[in-house]
Amino acid sequence: MADPTWLDALSDLGIGSLLGAAVGYIGSSLTQRGTDKRAAERERETRREDREQRLKDQRRAFEIATFEQLPNLVQQCARTTAQFLLFDIETLKNEGRLKEDSPYGGEEGLQTRLALRIVADQVLDDEVREALVGLQNELWAMETAPRGISGLDPKELMIERANQTARLTHLVDKTSETLNAYRRRLYKEL
Predict the structure, then answer these.
(1) What is the pLDDT of residues 8-22, one digit of tens each?
(2) CA 38 to chain CA mean position, Å
(3) What is the pTM of this model?
(4) Does residue 163 lie within any of the structural domains?
(5) Residue 38 falls inside a structural domain
(6) Which is deepest, 59, 114, 129, 139, by most CB within 10 Å?
């Protein structure tokens, strides 16, 4: 028979089962700690995703609220510019010269332009914002008396104003296309 070893001595005293229970408890504790860590990580990830979704929803609501104002403001500004141009054409026909005091625009036109500028600056989409700023700049240039006006014949001025009226239609169409593409993207993601 072999000499009893220290392991045999421990098992004879009943310490082996106690030692097994201790090892099992430590193993179970380590497993539970790992499970708790994974659960906490999943919870952090879920909170992060919820926060990102909430921010995305808020951005979308802001974009839609901003967009809803744009078509009407663009139409109002274009209408005011068209009235300026048509007034100039009519004045040139009847009086042979331009007048500086157009009945169009005024405080109301200025308020509409300012509202369009503010809303356009709030648009998050770069392409749409650039299209709106370009439109505003073009409209402002059309309403301003042409350079070198004193040297131009009234017929030449009428032709220039008529060309600007055609250009206005093109600008509004182009801007409307950009706005409609933006609208489709906004509502497609809903």
Answers:
(1) 665 555 665 666 677
(2) 37
(3) 0.66
(4) yes
(5) no
(6) 139
